[in-house]
Amino acid sequence: MEQRRGKRWRARLRSARLFDASRRLLVECRVLDLSPIGARLQPQSDRPLPLELLYRAGNDEDFRTAELVWIRNREIGIRFSDAVQEERQRQLRNGPPSA
Fold first, then answer.
1. Would you say 57 and 66 are in contact if contact means Cβ atoms under 8 Å apart?
2. Domain range summary for the chain, segments of one domain joined by +
3. Alpha carbon of 58 to those of 13, 48, 72, 75: distances in Å?
4. Nearest 5°: phi and psi at 87?
5. DSSP 8-state secondary structure symbol assigned to residue 44
6. Structural class in CATH, domain 9-91
7. What is the rounded CA–CA span in Å between residue 81 and residue 89?
8. Residue 12 — very low, low, confident or very high, per pLDDT cuts 50/70/90?
């Protein structure tokens, strides 16, 4: 059962890079799915990754902070930290979701 919070789109021809907190390159990845709150990536190596990452899309100069959420079948899921903070702020403004 999918539990997506935001719209996603396939992005098979996109690439991304993951960096550590010191902005050292950890691994290059293929972007499989991308949404405003996260991404499903296919790393080009099996290198162990920290839970806190910096994400950089393609040739962008900007970094986005992200957290490693899951690892499965040579794919990883990350959640963008800024999106999580925006979601929490929205919930505080609007109150808890109704059941």
1. no
2. 9-91
3. 10, 21, 23, 18
4. -65, -45
5. S
6. mainly beta
7. 13
8. low
